[in-house]
Structures
1.
Amino acid sequence: MSSDFTSAAPIEPARAPVRPPSIVHTIFLGPNGIRAGWRLLLFLAFFLGISSLTNKGLQHVPAFATWAKSQPKGTITAAFGIATEGLTVALLFFLVWIMSKIEKRSFADYGLPLSQAFGKRFWQGIPFGFLALSLLLVLMAALHGFSLGGTEIGGIAAVKYGALFAVCFLLVGMFEEFSFRGYLQATLGSGIGFWPAAILLSILFGAGHLGNPGEAKIGAVMAGSFGLVAAFSLSRTGNLWFPIGMHAAWDWGETYFYGVPDSGLLATGRLFKSASHGPNWLTGGTVGPEGSYLVFPVLLLICVAVHFAFPAPRTKPEASSFPAR
């Protein structure tokens, strides 16, 4: 007995047509969420806005305003440096934490794995920074452009100021590296690539130093060049703890230990007395050793040392791990 019914393919329900993304969606969003440029602008708006409000607020705190006015011009004092840099670092970490929640990232994605805080990479960076600065001064001395005198302080005062300036320049290193080679590098790098971002940010990093008293164009160029060295260290070590250690040790050796100007500023409570002699291209003039033309071969030597100490990784550095957009 045969059936009059024949089998037929099931009829699929009609699908709604896929709507193309709106212009607003295309401008602000990419395959991985908010586009890199908008994330960058959002972070800068937060940072600049809150920094401005904080500074204005502190000006209305009588004790802090009096303390700030009492600071001698053209000098660095450890306690005031710790207070101001500590506040800036706290603000930076807070805003990066907010951005990490928006972007669903971790601090490691921005080049600063907290699990490795002050670990091996950090302590490897310390001798790199101090020895590089020492080599610069040795080269200057060999050309009769630098001389080191006796100590200016000793005993308990030397230990006290050495420790205070260590904290101060650790905060300086953390802020400058985690901002320029950390969040900004990671975010901008996700949009235009690691090295284009590193070059652009190094130019901005150098230009930012022009606001320091006693700074000159050559000092700003040197600061930008140091930014490239730090970026190269980031690309080889995989995170920012090495350049943070290197940066802090360079500044500590320059400002406290050898007692030379740092971007035109001298320290109150420096260990050694020092003097510069000769043309500005050799001594750096008012800028200090960072303005010497001898900085550039020293920075190149750091790159060579990093190249051999830390072979190129097979994967990209953590700070540039965002997918390109």
2.
Amino acid sequence: MKVLTAAQMREVDRRTAEMGIPGIVLMENAGHRVVEFLAERFAPLSAQRIVVLCGKGNNGGDGLVVARQLHTRFTPQALHVVLLAAPEELKGDAAANYRMLAACGCPVWREIPAEARLAALVVDALLGTGISGPATGVMLEGIREINGGFPLARVVAVDIPSGMPSDSGEPVGERARADYTVTFTAPKAGQVLPPNCDGVGELVVGHIGSPPELYEDVWLSLLEPEMFEELLEPRPPGGHKGTFGHVLVVAGSREKSGAAAMTGLGALRAGAGLVTVASAASAIPIIASHAPELMTAPLETGLQGIAEGKTVIAMGPGLGRGPDIEALVARTLAEFEQPMVLDADALGWQATENDGLPHIRILTPHPGEMARLTGKTTTEIQSDRVGAARAFATERRVTLVLKGQRTVMAFPDGRVWINPTGTPALGTGGSGDVLTGMIAGFLAQFPGQPDQAVAAAVYLHGLAGEIGARALGEKCLIATDILRYLPEAMEECADVSDGV
């Protein structure tokens, strides 16, 4: 699903108008999408007490359409339409919709009546995506009313919660609370990036008539199961362990054998046919005790023979640090053409450029590791996760998975996908090792679809964490629980793709 900035949205609206769909039609459609949502979630609307708060811009015009449709189609138990502006301040399509609302006999208040405080639903149509800087004056007062003046109400934001910037995840001032947000055409960047993504409630996208081809080339997308649905289809009846790839995991040490085991198990549970773990000889008995399905090989004998015939190499978790490890990683990158997933201790190497070769290299740093790779501070990385990931991926010709809230996947051609799944419960030792294994496992099965393999692993990893946290609690989830709930996550995604 494409994600747009405010400027891109304005350009889409402009080009839509050039194609013969005027703004007033788009505004009517936008209001209709909001009313459809209200009717679906809060039926019967005739029994509801509703307040619609409108500003003077196009977002307020959308709200006036919502009010007119509620008044003429559903006759709620109580409907209070509040315009926090003088009618003469309205312009263009918003002014036209005000006149249509008045013609229907629906009263419009300039202040919030006392009886409106008991509303069950508040529609926030004060400020839209055109805001620059923090809300002030009467709009700020309106935002504060939404946040504290309606104790019984659910809040439905029109397009974007008032006061929230549309292009940035960082707040710039006070914003209205929202239980639901009905946005139009596509999500906006500020709605899908942290921390603002936590303030939109349930995000619903309503299509209002802009042709998708007008924004199909946008490089930022929100990941959804349909983007990797082919990878979850039933396997062919004649498939066998050799059909689904062989992952080589180069990981672990005497002190961190669990990291190697979790990486290997992640690859197996994601569906790889075979997994071999190459680790220090002293760690192999411990690794084998974790899962008899894992094959093992002593790392001391060298990777040349071990890597032969392997589909994917996953490298780094628990491997240790030092000149010997750096040399091992550098040799592996230079000598082997298989797709590689590099994490943890394999990210300490300096030769991060892919030299324009067609080899698939997937890096999975957390923000601290990303800071070391780029020479920036962790704060700098976190302040622009999308920009940092995209710049690194395009410059070094690698696929980068920047872990954290709303994990960012950046590709060598400049595309960026943002993952909406995940939970603070994943902030536990070993969860990144499981993700490395899952990426390798999907890549082993689908070497011709590397982007979708990464997407499937990242999305399902986050979703399995969410499911596990619901069952066990955020504090009690441990890394291997991700594997326990992965089948349920796969089933849920397959159902979504099938339209169930």
